[in-house]
Design brief:
about 400 residues, mainly beta, Immunoglobulin-like, 2 domains, six-stranded antiparallel sheet, about 5% helix
């Protein structure tokens, strides 16, 4: 009987006789917009700590129930994190805003008031704000190689950078609190990403004025300058060569999407942003599925280990090529991190206005992450317990 009791304890996590049963697994689980992020982090759930001032979505899913009608999401301290829109039925998503520094408990209850899920989250102001070249990150380059501390932008071009936040070395999640001002007639616009590409990230768009102008972009949180990025407009003649950086295919499976990123480099081995390239596949012009007002600096193709094609990226007098294991591909832009729109500012200096340019249906991003749920570039994807970043 004692052996049987021990077996029962091990199997059910319940005591034998007077032992107390362990609480049942929660009926639902919270996840935030970072579960849909192609840049990481990869774990599911809530990605606390959050950026102070950020606005993002929290989803509640149930492994057993398809209808979450009547479920509620509440915060123990609205000054730290506030629920601004209630959970929607069926989809189970709510909008929250992170407030000031501190901790609060987010609690989900069902229609009867029974506890579904409860988690403590932290909100913090960053002590470090950095820019990154999105194209390099997409190819798998590390933070050190991708970070941008100053930027040269080719005349007539523009550049979009990924913005990331840290507090004492820990990265903060969230977006929507960043502002930017630009000097010397430059245009700077900040905007969160959209759709399922990187919905909880901030991006900075910079368009310089005429050639030879120098200035800077100041990044601000709560009207406090947290970073200043020097910007210089350069002539295409300063470009000494073009680099084509291909994403690794070491762990790729047939049918996965992979990217090649092209960028200009000057005589000092510094990156020059904003260059648009004429892409080719086996000597023929590569197709562009949708229009973009950003630089054509990405090529996305379908990995096929038994096929190969020669991809070229021409700019000015440079026309490098690389061979990829793939079949078919299209031209893309690092400016297209939004779902069905590319933000573009109007006017000069300051944050400017934002214009939405429709870019058509998305056929590319589905392969960027292998996830059980269906994915569309133009529609927000719902989180999946199995969602993983493919890059």
């Amino acid at each position: 009987m004692r052996s049987l009791c021990l077996l029962v304890v091990a199997a059910s996590l319940a005591g034998c006789g007077t032992g107390a049963a362990a609480p049942p697994a929660p009926a639902g689980v919270m996840a935030d917009s970072f579960d849909q992020d192609i840049f990481g982090p990869q774990q599911n759930g809530l990605h606390s700590p959050y950026l102070a001032g950020a606005q993002f979505s929290i989803y509640v899913t149930s492994p057993t129930l398809s209808d979450t009608t009547g479920w509620t999401l509440a915060s123990s301290d609205p000054a730290v994190i506030r629920v601004v829109t209630p959970l929607s039925p069926y989809g189970g998503d709510a909008t929250v805003i992170a407030g000031g520094d501190g901790q609060a408990t987010l609690t989900v209850r069902d229609a009867s008031g029974a506890l579904v899920d409860s988690q403590v989250v932290t909100v913090a102001l960053p002590d470090t704000v950095s820019l990154f070249a999105e194209g390099l990150l997409l190819t798998g380059a590390g933070d050190a190689a991708s970070q941008v501390t100053e930027a040269s932008i080719v005349t007539g071009g523009d550049a979009t950078f990924l913005v990331r936040y840290w507090k004492q070395g820990t990265e903060l999640a969230g977006s929507g609190a960043l502002q930017a001002t630009a000097s010397s007639g430059m245009t700077a616009t900040t905007s969160p990403g959209g759709g399922g590409i990187a919905p909880a990230r901030d991006f900075l768009y910079v368009a310089p004025p005429a050639m030879g102008a120098s200035g800077s972009v100041k990044l601000m949180l709560a009207s406090v300058v947290v970073s200043t990025i020097p910007i210089t407009t350069v002539d295409p003649a300063t470009v000494t060569h073009v680099d084509m950086v291909a994403q690794s295919t070491e762990s790729a499976k047939k049918g996965d999407m992979r990217v090649v990123y092209a960028h200009a480099v000057d005589a000092n081995a510094a990156n020059v942003y904003g260059a648009s390239f004429d892409w080719s596949v086996n000597g023929l012009a590569a197709p562009i599925i949708y229009a973009s007002s950003g630089p054509s600096d990405l090529f996305e193709y379908t990995y096929n280990p038994s096929a190969s094609e020669t991809v070229g990226a021409a700019f000015e007098s440079f026309s490098p090529t690389t061979v990829v294991r793939g079949q078919g591909g299209i031209v893309d832009s690092t400016a297209d991190q939004m779902a069905c729109a590319v933000r573009r500012a109007t006017g000069t200096g300051g944050t400017g206005g934002v214009a939405a340019v429709m870019v058509g249906i998305g056929l590319i991003a589905a392969g960027r992450r292998r996830r059980k749920a269906s994915f569309s570039r133009c529609l927000p994807a719902q989180p999946s317990p199995l969602s993983r970043r493919d890059l």
